[in-house]
């Protein structure tokens, strides 16, 4: 194969990988946030005196869940704009 074909193949597979990273990461984060907020509301409805304790833990876990998606977006941007796989061709 020529270098141009390798370059096109790497860019195509990188584009597919970027789409999967962002799409599945966003879906996972949304599902996780939805489940966690639902469980928080159930716990708050059962024991209202535990709301301050539960609220702090929920906010911490929501931040960690969103941080994992933001890290995936950062990695996707690395591969989109500064693809280290293209150095193999040159």
TrEMBL record:
GO terms for cellular component: plasma membrane; proton-transporting ATP synthase complex; proton-transporting two-sector ATPase complex, proton-transporting domain. The keyword Flavoprotein does not apply. The keyword Hydrolase applies. It is found in: Cell inner membrane; Cell membrane. Keywords: ATP synthesis, Cell inner membrane, Cell membrane, CF(0), Hydrogen ion transport, Hydrolase, Ion transport, Lipid-binding, Membrane, Transmembrane, Transmembrane helix, Transport. The chain crosses the membrane at residues 12-37, 58-81. The record marks 66 as: Reversibly protonated during proton transport. GO terms for molecular function: hydrolase activity; lipid binding; proton-transporting ATP synthase activity, rotational mechanism. Residues 16-78 form the V-ATPase proteolipid subunit C-like domain. It comes from the Bacteria. PROSITE patterns: ATPASE_C. It is a multi-pass membrane protein. Pfam families: ATP-synt_C. InterPro entries: ATP_synth_csu_bac/chlpt, ATP_synth_F0_csu, ATP_synth_F0_csu_DDCD_BS, ATP_synth_F0_csu_sf, ATPase_proteolipid_c-like_dom, F/V-ATP_Csub_sf. Belongs to the ATPase C chain family. HAMAP family: ATP_synth_c_bact. Key component of the F(0) channel; it plays a direct role in translocation across the membrane. A homomeric c-ring of between 10-14 subunits forms the central stalk rotor element with the F(1) delta and epsilon subunits. F(1)F(0) ATP synthase produces ATP from ADP in the presence of a proton or sodium gradient. F-type ATPases consist of two structural domains, F(1) containing the extramembraneous catalytic core and F(0) containing the membrane proton channel, linked together by a central stalk and a peripheral stalk. During catalysis, ATP synthesis in the catalytic domain of F(1) is coupled via a rotary mechanism of the central stalk subunits to proton translocation. F-type ATPases have 2 components, F(1) - the catalytic core - and F(0) - the membrane proton channel. F(1) has five subunits: alpha(3), beta(3), gamma(1), delta(1), epsilon(1). F(0) has three main subunits: a(1), b(2) and c(10-14). The alpha and beta chains form an alternating ring which encloses part of the gamma chain. F(1) is attached to F(0) by a central stalk formed by the gamma and epsilon chains, while a peripheral stalk is formed by the delta and b chains. This is ATP synthase subunit c.
